[in-house]
Amino acid sequence: MARMVQCVVLKREAKGLDAPPHPGELGRRIYENVSREGWQRWLERLTMIINEYGLSTADPRTLELIEQHMVGFLFGEGELGQAPEQFRPPRAKK
């Protein structure tokens, strides 16, 4: 039976993650409060953030910025977490 969590992203109960997806206290907090689907939504947002800002995950400053976006997106804390202002979703293919 899947572990269930009250997901802060989906605002409902959903299947939880199998393990903390991030190190440390933040990883534990995510594990306890974010569902698999909520985490997948974060990964989609992360891809958008990396592409829109042209970030390199090899740069330690980038990792700090990503973590700030993560906390903003998942928990609504801090100043980051929204889609980049200049982001325009791709048009649907016809």
TrEMBL record:
Keywords: Iron
Keyword Phosphoprotein part of the UniProt annotation: no
Source organism, top-level taxon: Bacteria
Keyword Iron: yes
Pfam families in the record: Iron_traffic
Classification via InterPro entries: Fe_traffick_prot_YggX (IPR007457), Fe_traffick_prot_YggX_sf (IPR036766)
Role description: Could be a mediator in iron transactions between iron acquisition and iron-requiring processes, such as synthesis and/or repair of Fe-S clusters in biosynthetic enzymes.
HAMAP family (alphabetical): Fe_traffic_YggX
Family: Belongs to the Fe(2+)-trafficking protein family.
Name by which UniProt lists this protein: Probable Fe(2+)-trafficking protein
Naturally occurring in which organism (per UniProt): Inmirania thermothiophila
Taxonomic lineage of the native organism: Bacteria, Pseudomonadati, Pseudomonadota, Gammaproteobacteria, Chromatiales
